[in-house]
Amino acid sequence: MKIALCGKGGSGKSTVVALLAEEFRRRGWSVLVVDSDESNSGLHRLLGFDRPPRPLLDLVGGKKNVRRGLKSGSSEGEGGPELSVLARPQLRLSDLPPEHVAARDRTRLVTVGKIHQALEGCACPMGLVSREFLKKIQTQEGEVVVVDFEAGLEHFGRGIETSLDAVIVVVEPSFESLEMAGKVRELTEGAGAKFLGAVVNKVESPGLASQVSKELEARGVSLLGVIHHHAEIAAAGLTGGPVPWESARQEAAGIVDAVLAGR
Ligand SMILES: Nc1ncnc2c1ncn2[C@@H]1O[C@H](COP(=O)(O)OP(=O)(O)OP(=O)(O)O)[C@@H](O)[C@H]1O
Ligand SMILES: [Mg+2]
Fold first, then answer.
1. Strand partners, 227
2. What pLDDT sits at residue 64?
3. Which residues' Cβ are closer than 6 Å to ligand 1?
4. Residue 33: is its pLDDT beyond 70?
5. Domain CATH for 33
6. Are strands 107-111 and 223-228 parallel, antiparallel or unpaired?
7. What are phi and psi of 171, to 5 degrees?
8. Distance (Å) of CA 103 to CA 36, 48, 58, 96
């Protein structure tokens, strides 16, 4: 099963990715987290890894190489034999060199690539690598891929959602975030992919939760679950530490139940 989380900047996508990944792991699933956000570099820390794995972009000869390939019309670029990893029709994690996969217990992390330099050009090569990887990576029963997208809607223009089994939107209690949830539903369904619903995050009061739920309903977005504002999560966010799973354990469990029921 491959699921992706998207939503407005700062709504809590990466935090919710980490919470859901941990909940799946506790249930005995093998979890692959895919960091598809080309801007933020901290997902490995939220998951409790010391350092990120080598990016997949390096595996295909870097951004320039992919861009050359895009220009020449080949979606796989024109790199050497290494490039053939992503050019394969199907991919298992074991096909990737170990330095590209961070691993701890049943949780794995791969990262697509990050923007490092001024004027290095657009993020299209990362989008292409994300799409090809997510399309080709194979999952079996008991394996879940959880994708952390960059903020906003750009990935929809790249057609990435068609490689996924389901898309979830993370919503914080704000008008812009609610509007984006409605848009994500439209775009996901418009692409023929499955939209599962919204996780409402950083909720401060029960009254606010029911208000957000009504607003979502008005936009045709079903509610997968609510995660309250937890002081421990905010504190870990400030220091760059791992997400304190225990503080939102029950909420994450309810969301995983809803995901499994709705898939
Ligand atoms: N439920 C929560 N309770 C308290 N703080 C939270 C909660 N969820 C997220 N945060 C905090 O909000 C901030 C943004 O969260 P996070 O980085 O997960 O959002 P994001 O949507 O991935 O952001 P970006 O769009 O920049 O990738 C972080 O400091 C995080 O610790
Ligand atoms: Mg993030």
1. 201
2. 74
3. 9-15, 37, 40, 151, 201-202, 227, 229-230, 233-234, 237
4. yes
5. 3.40.50.300
6. unpaired
7. -125, 135
8. 17, 10, 18, 12
Q: Is 239 exposed, middle or buried (0-12, 13-18, 19+ CB in 10 A)?
A: exposed
Q: Whose CA is nearest to atom 15 of ligand 1?
A: 12
Domain around 166: 2-262
Q: What is the pLDDT of residue 76?
A: 47
- DSSP letter at 78 equals S
Determine the distance separating the centroid of ligand 2 and the alpha carbon of 80, expressed in angstroms. Answer: 32
Residue-level pLDDT at 71: 63
**The whole model's pTM is what?**
0.93
Q: Closest ligand to 170 CA?
A: 1
Expressed in angstroms and rounded, the spacing between residue 40 Cα and the centre of ligand 2 is 6
Determine the distance separating the centroid of ligand 1 and the alpha carbon of 45, expressed in angstroms.
13
Number of the ligand 1 atom closest to the C-alpha atom of 230: 3
Question: Residue 115: which pLDDT band, with cuts at 50, 70 and 90?
Answer: confident
Flag the least confident range among 86-95, 100-109, 154-163, 170-179: 154-163
pLDDT at position 78: 47
Are 7 and 185 within 8 A, CB to CB? no
What ligand 1 atom has the least distance to the C-alpha of 201? 1
Q: If you take atom 7 of ligand 1, which residue's CA is the nearest one?
A: 202
Domains identified in the chain, total number: 1
8 A C-beta contact, residue 146 and residue 33: yes
What ligand has the least distance to the C-alpha of 235?
1
Give yes or no for a contact between 132 and 77, defined as CB atoms under 8 angstroms apart: no
- Tokens found for residue 97: 């060199």
Distance CA 72, CA 85 (A): 19
Tokens 């997510």 belong to 134
Q: Calculate how far, in angstroms, residue 150's C-alpha sits from the geometric centre of ligand 1.
A: 13
